[in-house]
């Protein structure tokens, strides 16, 4: 698909979106079978892109399901979006939408953006609120199952304190076994529980520390991956300083 799109762009049959990096046109992102196409809102480009996708179907023997695809207009009139969606045979979408599990266009500062994560934690708690689990079993549950759920979000966004508080409360409730709705006194401070076992804790993951560590990795990638497009776009917009 990449080669077909590049050839079509070079022949001026498709017009992509100009990014901040001079001389680079932003046209598509692809990972496995998840693909985002960036086009200017014109019938000419859209028709040619649909032809490219049909050619990909013939070459790969894989059929593209346009009914499961969405067309999202950014600063484009509703009438034009509806016309282009009808041309493609796909639905009209809107921001935010999910790509590789991340809600693109969502405001990570809002609690609503984190609702799916909080709901997943609550569902895990409901499914595991068995009184037969020992404390050690609940520690394993919180450490190995519940603590890994939001890592894709935490690798991308700064988790608000209110969200961390809600998630930690769910984890605390799971450890204290509130399955019958009763309140129980916490015998050990949560900060101690999150310490490594060699320091007297239970080894439960500290999500706040994990969030900072995952975000810090982007600084390392920024300094080590000089040729990637996302780095060039950041430098073009904000500059590069030591």
UniProtKB/TrEMBL annotation:
Top-level division of the source organism's lineage: Eukaryota
PANTHER family (alphabetical): REVERSE TRANSCRIPTASE ZINC-BINDING DOMAIN-CONTAINING PROTEIN-RELATED-RELATED, RIBONUCLEASE H PROTEIN
Protein known as: Reverse transcriptase domain-containing protein
Organism (species): Hibiscus syriacus (Rose of Sharon)
């Amino acid at each position: 698909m990449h080669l077909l799109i590049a050839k079509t762009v070079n022949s001026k049959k498709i017009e992509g979106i100009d990014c901040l990096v001079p001389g680079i046109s932003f046209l598509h992102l692809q990972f496995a079978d998840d693909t985002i196409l960036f086009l200017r809102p014109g019938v000419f480009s859209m028709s040619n892109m649909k032809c490219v996708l049909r050619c990909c179907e013939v070459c790969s023997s894989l059929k593209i399901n346009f009914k499961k695809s969405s067309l999202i207009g950014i600063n484009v009139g509703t009438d034009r979006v509806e016309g282009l969606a009808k041309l493609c045979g796909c639905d009209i979408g809107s921001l935010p939408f999910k790509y590789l599990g991340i809600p693109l266009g969502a405001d990570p500062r809002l609690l609503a953006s984190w609702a799916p994560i909080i709901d997943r934690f609550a569902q895990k708690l409901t499914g595991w609120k068995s009184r037969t689990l020992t404390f050690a079993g609940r520690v394993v549950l919180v450490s190995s199952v519940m603590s890994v759920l939001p890592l894709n979000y935490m690798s991308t966004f700064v988790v608000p304190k209110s969200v961390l508080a809600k998630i930690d409360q769910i984890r605390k409730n799971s450890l204290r076994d509130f399955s019958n709705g009763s309140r129980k006194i916490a015998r050990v401070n949560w900060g101690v529980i999150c310490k490594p076992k060699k320091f007297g804790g239970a080894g439960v993951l500290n999500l706040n520390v994990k969030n900072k560590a995952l975000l810090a990795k982007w600084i390392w990638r920024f300094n080590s991956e000089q040729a990637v497009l996302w780095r060039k776009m950041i430098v073009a917009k904000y500059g590069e300083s030591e």
